[in-house]
Write a structure and sequence with these properties.
Layout lengths: L4 H11 L5 E3 L6 E3 L7 H38 L3
Antiparallel strand pairs: 1-2
């Protein structure tokens, strides 16, 4: 005897149940809920990427301020 549609749906839903989890911030691997990284290697990669981004941001700030200072000096020196 075959199962009714509702029973079949319930059985499929039970077979497809995925426990609560999250994914690694770096590689996307499924990990227990509440964790950010799956391994020390992924954590170190992410921290290195954050340092690079921060250094690049400060470099752009320094470049902008430097260009601003040079522009002001040139404007002051070559004033009519």
């Amino acid at each position: 005897m075959s199962l009714s549609e509702a029973e079949e749906k319930r059985k499929r839903a039970k077979d497809l149940y995925i426990p609560p989890h999250s994914h690694c911030k770096v590689c996307g691997k499924a990990i227990p809920e509440g964790q950010i990284y799956c391994s020390r290697e992924c954590r170190e990669k992410d921290l290195a990427a954050q340092r690079r981004e921060r250094n690049l941001m400060w470099g752009f700030y320094a470049l902008f301020i430097g260009l601003l200072v040079v522009t002001l000096i040139i404007t002051y020196v070559y004033r009519p």
